[in-house]
Amino acid sequence: MSTEEDKTNHVNDLANDLATVNVKDDKKEEGNDEGTDGISMSSFYSLDKPKDALSGTSQGVGNILKGALGGAALMVSAPIKGAYDGGKESGVIGGLKGFGMGLGAGVLGGAAMAVGGVGTGLYQVGRGIYNTPSAMKSSAEGKDWDSETKKWYSYNLPDEASQFLSMTDEDFMASLSADEMEEFRAMQAERAGDKESKEDVKCLEFYDVLGVNSHATPGEIKKAYYLKAKQCHPDKHPDDPEAANKFQKIGEAYQVLSDEKLRSRYDQHGKDGVEEAPKMDPGALYAMIFGSEKFEPLIGELSMASHMTGGEDEADVHPKLKAFKQRQREVRCAVHLAEKLQKYIDNGDYEFSQWAHEEANELGQSAFGGTLLNVIGTTYLEQAKLELGGVAGVGVSLSQTGRYLNTRFSVLNRGIRAASGASDAQKAQEKLIEIQQEKAEGKREPEETEEELLLKKKIESAQGHIFSVMWYMTAIDIESTLKKVCTKVTHDTYVEPDIRKKRKKALLLLGKIFCDRAAEHGSTGIDEVLNNLTQQMQQQAGETGAGAGAGSQK
Questions:
Q1: 265: how many CB neighbours lie within 10 A of its CB?
Q2: Has residue 7 got a pLDDT over 60?
Q3: Four-residue CA torsion sign, 58, 60, 61, 63
Q4: Model confidence over 398-438: pLDDT tens digits?
Q5: What is the DSSP letter of 78?
Q6: Residue 263 and residue 18: Cα distance in Å, rounded?
Q7: Within 365-390, where are the H helices?
Q8: pLDDT at position 14
Q9: Which helix (H) or strand (E) holds 15?
Q10: How many CA atoms lie within 13 A of 134 on its CB side?
Q11: Is the Cβ–Cβ distance between 509 and 348 less than 8 Å?
Q12: What is the tens place of the pLDDT at every residue in 354-371?
């Protein structure tokens, strides 16, 4: 490390020591002779080492706002609290005294918080300015900023791959501290004790299809579906005429057993109890959750699929293990991407373009291929522009911010709609089952009525919102993962700066080709997803209705 960096770190460490103010609590708990631990100013104001002037200014403005708002809140609340406490002890007179004392304390405390906010705000701005020369130097050397350690470091992709890709989940769990492991085992034991065996189940067919017991947990059902669906996917058995039928049954079994209410009705009434429940095409469901095996080297295992492969319920997975698996995913994808971009470096842009076009064309043929290609291509394209810099990079930054806000709003909006329509959809589903039973008993005509069509539309509308939320979450998962993948590939100091620059150019070209191919394969957004799903649900609903009508006529 250079003398300049040593000096910068020394100044920042000293500043942190001076900025930490311990406020001892004078009150002691009953039976405890020691006071409480001190409270650091950094627990309220941001005093982390800023990366540069921009980071320092951001933290400084935040501290000033915290001080102002916190001070105002204290000035309002302190008199009210004083009046309340005084009134409880001495009535009206005590309340007035308490109000006065609270007002004085509030004014002093509020002013102190405001002053503290301004002081720490200016302090952070100054630190950011002081750190800027070192930041510019480190950035020019190809170093990256570690937001956890607050230090610059040289990233090396092969080193990270050697560290993370050779480690199993078991190895990682073994590396956790004894306290963390004990807490994790206690949590697992508690949840295992909650399992109840279901002895009174009318039909076991769906459980048998997935190869699980009737008391299987949601996590066990998810894992069983993952394994069975992967094993029996029609693409893996092109010569088996029964492959599609087997896959259909696996998807139907999972959709029923993964839904708590549908599973309960199935346990009580068998398949008749869920006959009218609308279900999406198993192929579409599979693609939504797992993407496509062809895409896996590029985007890794999607988060929804990762939850299934573990076989545990979400609460049973240690948070650090989830973070580790995501890190592995990013590194694995980065290694694969670096290998593909090497074609550009070794063979030039013409041969690389030919390969990229062939790759995009093959990927586009899979389920939702155009949609996935668009997400991947857009992320590659934007990250390459950001890394190459210039006016285009600034435009990309603004575009990403806008899309980030729009996507989160869409998720919130669709989620609210799904939640508000869930109750109506449930009632509609129950009414459809009731109508189906009446048809079977000869109390209704077998023809589908206007009432049934309206009920099915309600259900389809609610499911459409749910599926759109699933897709948005999948798109967010892919984009956030690929941003880190692209950074690893373009910041890899294992290779020379010239090679890193060529990787950026290759990434730009690959992104353009993927986006172009995505457009050729049709629409590239949520509309394509929802249109496909709606058509599949309507087709299946029609087949179900036709089957029901035939059954009633018999």
A1: 18
A2: no
A3: positive
A4: 776 777 777 777 667 766 766 666 667 777 777 877 787 78
A5: H
A6: 61
A7: 369-388
A8: 36
A9: helix 3-19
A10: 26
A11: no
A12: 999 999 998 888 767 888
152 forms beta bridges with 145
The angle subtended at Cα 531 by Cα 529 and Cα 533, nearest 5°, is 70
Q: Which of 304, 207, 307 is nearest to 253 (CA)?
A: 207
Specify whether the CB–CB gap between 487 and 481 falls below 8 A.
Answer: no
SS3 145: strand
**Residue 80, both tokens:** 């009210």
Query: Which residue has tokens 């191919």?
Result: 517
Amino acid letter at 354? Q
What one-letter code names the amino acid at 28?
Answer: K
**pLDDT reading at 298 higher than 80:** yes
Model confidence at 203: pLDDT above 70: yes
- The reply to whether the predicted model has a pTM over 0.70 is no
CA atoms of 207 and 209, how far apart (whole Å) = 5
| d(C-alpha 50, C-alpha 151), whole Å | 10
Residues 6+ apart with CB under 8 A from 363: 292, 294, 295, 369, 372, 373, 517
Residue with tokens 């006016």: 391
| Residue 506: pLDDT over 90 | yes
Q: What is the pLDDT of residue 57?
A: 94
Rounded CA-CA distance 332/336 in Å is: 6
Could you say which DSSP state residue 23 is in?
B
Tens digits of per-residue pLDDT, 82-119? 888 888 888 888 888 888 888 888 888 888 888 989 99
Give residue for tokens 């951001």. 58
